Fold this sequence. Notes:
Layout: H1 11-22, H2 31-40, H3 47-59, E1 64-67, E2 73-76, H4 83-95, H5 101-112, H6 117-123, H7 140-153, E3 155-164, E4 170-172, E5 179-189, E6 192-199, E7 204-209, E8 213-222, H8 226-230, E9 248-257, H9 260-268, E10 272-276, E11 281-290, H10 292-300, E12 305-309, H11 311-329
Antiparallel strand pairs: 1-2, 3-4, 3-5, 3-8, 5-6, 6-7, 9-11, 9-12, 10-11
Helix pairs in contact: 1-3, 2-3, 4-5
Amino acid sequence: MMAMKPRQREKLLAILLLLQKESDETHPISASVIAERLEQSGIPCERKAVYDNMDALQRMGYDVVLQPGRGGGFYLGERDFQLAELKLLVDAVQASKFITTQKSLELIQKLSAQASCHQAASLQRQLYVAGKTKTENERIYYTIDAIHEAIAQDVKLSFLYFDYDRTRTKVYRHGGQAYLVSPYALIWDDENYYLLAYSDRDEELRHYRVDKMESLSLLEENRDGRAEIRGEDLTSYTDRRFGMFHGEEEEVTLRCENWMARVLIDRFGDNVTLIPDREASFLAKISVVVSDPFYGWLFGLGGAAVVLEPENVRKEMKRKLNEMVRKYRNNDVF
C-alpha cells in the first residue's frame, strides 16, 4: 500500500475545523474555497476530494449541509449548541453574581468558540442587569469542585467562613476557627450558591454561602447527619426560606387581597394552600422559616397580606411595625 502523503491524514480534521469556525447557514463555504484554504495551509487537496471528505463527515454523524446554487457551498448545520442556546448561556454567565468579571469574560470566549466566527460576534454583547454586583472571590470555582468531590467521597469538609465589615475588610466567624461540616448538597438561590451541610458544632442542618468560604479542605472522616438529611425535603428547602436565613419553621396563615394569588404562587408554587374567604380576599397557608427577611417580605407587600396565625408571628409583626414607626418619628434612631 502506498504511504499516505505528508499531511494528508490532517485533511479531514482540517475541513471539519474550517466548517466549525467559518461556516453557518448564511455563510456556506464552496468546495473550491475549502480546497484553496487547505492548500494555503500546506495540505494538498483537490476539489473532488472535498466532496469525498464531506461524505465521510456525514457518515461519522456530522450535519454537513450542501447549499445548492450560485454562491452556495457547505456549512455545518446542527451543532452541539445552537446560536439561541449560546445566547442564553452567555446571558446567564453575565447575569450570574457569583461569577467574577474575569471568569465571565473567559467563559464567554469559550462559549463563542462553539459558534462560527460570524455568529460569535453576536455573542459579544452587553447584558444590562439592574443592581448587579460580581463576586470578587476567584476561588469559588475550585471551592464548588471540592464540595462535589467531598460529597462523592462521603467525607467531611473544613473551611473558614467570613463576612465583610464597613471598610470591606474580611471578618472571620467563630474567631477564625474552622467550620467542620458534612456536605450534602449545593443549592442555587437568589443568584448565590449555598452549601447544605450537617454541622458538627450545631448538630443540625445548616447552609453556608459558598463565596464566603475559603481554605477549604477535605477530611478523612465519613459524613454525619444522614438521618437529618433524609428527613429534609430538599425540593422545597429554598421555598420555605427567605434569603436562606435561619429560623423556626412554622405554618403561617395569611389573609390576602385577591391580586396576591399570583404573588404567592410565584413564590411558593405548590407549597401554598389558597382558601376562599371574603369577596375581596382569601386565606393562604404557607410553611415558612420565620426570619427577618420573611417579615421584610410582608412589609414590602404594604398590607396586602396580614398574618392571622400563629399568634407569636402576628405579635412579632406588630412589634416590628411599632419599632419601625418609632424610628421614623425620632431623629436619633441609632
